[in-house]
Automatic annotation (TrEMBL):
Glycosyltransferase 2-like domain span: 4-111
Organism from which the protein derives: Rhodoferax aquaticus
A Pfam family per the record: Glycos_transf_2
Classification via InterPro entries: Glyco_trans_2-like, Nucleotide-diphossugar_trans
Protein name listed in UniProt: Glycosyltransferase
């Protein structure tokens, strides 16, 4: 199964390069991994970096879509629409892959679950197995709920959404890979313009309240996914009987 790493990026061309290099230098099969970026129209430096990364790694391994500044969580959905893989990773440009053959561990984990409905994540250097800030979903999940991420959040909270739904399903799965989050709260980065704008958006938009107000939609996601799981299990039972 191919993996698409979906990643919005803004004014961080060197972080884009670091992410790509870490993903490809540690994966088992580069031909089965692609990175898909969402870039703002006016972010010329990042667009130039995307072109360079395509030149170095090939246009089938690195892709980019440019567009207006929309809700951050919806940018991941645009990446998912361009992606070609069955497995989609919700990734940030401040992530570094630190585990050799991480892709094989991801494939093996999904192969072990017949209906593929789960949220798979590793250790970001802060939450370990308690919470997945950046992780992997199969197309079965995405197609069932209608999106990779709920398109409502200008900052944060979409990871909480996925964790909460996965926990309701008892399908949040941790694997021993390190996807290190180089976040300023861990003193691994400075508060750059990207962080400044994100914090300001969160203050203005009150994403926490949006999350609270959307509880019924999370419950609906749970019901859609649970129904898919039950239908898949029933089809398997019927096929065995036949």
């Amino acid at each position: 199964m191919k993996i698409s790493i979906c990643c919005p990026s803004y004014k961080r061309p060197t972080s884009m390069q670091r992410l790509v290099e870490s993903a490809f230098s540690t994966c088992d099969d580069k031909t089965q991994v692609e990175l898909v970026f969402y870039l703002d129209f006016d972010d010329l430096a990042s667009k130039e970096m995307a072109v360079e990364l395509m030149r170095v790694h090939g246009a089938t391994n690195v892709k980019a879509i440019t567009g207006p500044k929309i809700k951050l969580s919806h940018m991941w959905n645009h990446c998912a629409n361009l992606a070609t893989a069955e497995i989609l990773m919700v990734c940030g440009d401040d992530i570094v892959f630190n585990t050799q053959n991480w892709d094989k561990l991801v494939w093996d984990a999904f192969e072990a679950v017949e209906d593929k409905i789960m949220f798979l994540h590793g250790d970001d250097g802060l939450h370990a197995n308690r919470f997945g800030t950046h992780g992997f979903l199969h197309r079965n999940w995405v197609n069932t709920v209608g999106y990779l991420l709920p398109p409502y959040f200008s900052a944060d909270w979409c990871d909480t959404w996925i964790n909460d739904v996965a926990n309701m399903l008892n399908r949040r799965v941790y694997i021993p890979i390190v996807t290190e989050h180089l976040h300023f709260v861990l003193n691994k980065a400075t508060i750059d313009v990207t962080h400044q704008e994100r914090l300001e958006r969160d203050r203005i938009d009150n994403n926490k309240q949006i999350y609270t107000d959307k509880k019924l939609e999370r419950d609906l996601d749970f019901l859609k996914l649970k129904t898919f799981m039950l239908q898949h299990a029933m089809e398997r039972v019927l096929s065995i009987k036949v």
